[in-house]
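ok so for the tutorial part 2 we go from a plain amino acid sequence to predicted structure tokens. step 1 is just haveing the sequence, like this:
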Amino acid sequence: MSFTVAIDGPAASGKGTISRAIAQHFGFAHLDTGLLYRAVGKKALALGDGPEIAVQIARELTAEDLNSDDLRTAEVAVAASKVASIPEVRSALVDFQKTFAKQQGGAILDGRDIGTVICPNAEVKLFVIANAKVRARRRYKELSEKGEKITELQVLNDIQARDARDAGRDTAPMVAAPDALVLDTSEMSIAQAIAAALAAIEGKLSLTANGLD
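step 2 — the prediction. this is what the tokens look like for a chain of 213 residues:
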């Protein structure tokens, strides 16, 4: 069975946590597409931040590049957002994502443009959001626990700048698909957010199994 779940939303909205929980619950394959851009961004920091260099890195990216332990630093997050705004970088990574989404057994992909560009025909689309201050608090806690020296205000500024870049880019901007379920996790616990997402997916799976969709 091929069944695709597309989850989009801004940084620290909870989409990654929700995606991993859903993948485990249903046995779906999971791809955090942000890691693709983080991997490109990380290499660009070392090799140079010119567009041509970023495009070449994207074309040569391998699955092994996604396993690096330092892809989730604040510095890499900023670099990822910058390279993601380069149309040629996005184009180079599209095929990888589309192939992943079609695998048998079900797949869930989370990112910024999954429901609008990568998987416009996904059976389920979620757009996960949360207040910027709430997201900054979450990300600050995560980074602090990893030993990063950064203030919550710096995290908030980074998140707001990244939101603006992601939503304002000309190619594949971050926006909810017209048929996406918008899930605001600002006042939700992790368990509540996961439960809401599971309910939406289970409903669609039931319709699909009964041939009603």
